[in-house]
Amino acid sequence: MTDALPWREITTDDYHHDRAFPDLDPVRAWIASEARVKELLQEQHDGRCRLRLVMREAVDLRRHPMANPRWVYDYNIGQGIVTMAEEIVIEFRNGRREVVPVHREPKGQVQGAGWSGGRR
Fold this sequence. Notes:
There is one protein chain. By secondary structure, the chain is α/β, with parallel strands linked by helices. It has one domain (7-100). It contains four helices and four strands. The chain has helices at 17-20, 26-45, 57-60, 79-84, and strands at residues 7-10, 50-56, 87-91, 97-100. Strands 1-2-3-4 form a four-stranded mixed beta sheet. The model has no long low-confidence stretch (mean pLDDT 84).
């Protein structure tokens, strides 16, 4: 039996244009952000790691009256990462983490994913 690939935890600090590239103008920061996402996904594709996206309620949750910290798509994290990460985890303000079930079709598309379960 072979060991599973190691997890690589990533947050928006690793790739989001506002946080990872604050010294660049907005257009260049966005381009650099997209290139960084591609590098991360390529590492996973090459079999060097499995990506675990950690969405932080205190940092990444969109600010609007109906924002739900349990719903993946209420987070400002980038669609490419959500659809390609092996595992998605929500880290709540109290520090507790919860894995979000991700259901994938054979070709890798996400189907019906988005809610974390349990209580906060």
